[in-house]
Amino acid sequence: xxxxxxxxxxxxxxxxxxxxxxxxxxxxxxxxxxxxxxxxxxxxxxxxxxxxxxxxxxxxxxxxxxxxxxxxxxxxxxxxxxxxxxxxxxxxxxxxxxxxxxxxxxxxxxxxxxxxxxxxxxxxxxxxxxxxxxxxxxxxxxxxxxxxxxxxxxxxxxxxxxxxxxxxxxxxxxxxxxxxxxxxxxxxxxxxxxxxxxxxxxxxxxxxxxxxxxxxxxxxxxxxxxxxxxxxxxxxxxxxxxxxxxxxxxxxxxxxxxxxxx
Length: 262
What we know:
Helices cover 40% and strands 16% of the residues. By secondary structure, it is of the alpha/beta class. The chain is globular, with a radius of gyration of 20 Å.
């Protein structure tokens, strides 16, 4: 039965500053849910940390965020870390990042599709569907569509309408309401998969950083290997939290420039 399902790759974009157990848990929850639909077979997961150009306060260098993500995901046999987005000199829109990864998926799919000889000796291409790509996110991500100037309208259409979302509930947020309140999200609601997390985990990277600044334990919130890396490189201090302190978030700055050009 699984062979008749649509192969699916889940892509998570974000700061991962640092990656937490909750980030990794999203992938497991999403995979279980998509399998339970009977329509999809998840064949891979991608963690794509944002570039240093994002401009978010307290964002440590991408090389550290990449290294921590790789350490955290050593135990996973299906989720990998991709460096492309993090290595870009400027912040990349989510739609652009999704286009890049989908292009890679299509290329790999074309290269792996082989041929065979049928009973008449004719060469026939093997028909294997290429994986779809969907964006994996927390319920708070849906709220970002309401922030003025943060998203381009055509990018929302592309991310939600063309690719699709797998959204995992977090805390007291109501993703169903966010979908209902947005005309665009509501129009593409069949391409938005809402996943309920029954085992509550409120871990956030912001709280992890705050605890680290205060010399408090973060054991069992993030992997031990990541904790060790943080201590080795003296990350998440009072000084590091002031990085980009007076910087306008790059998506907002980029949209402001675009508005002036228009």
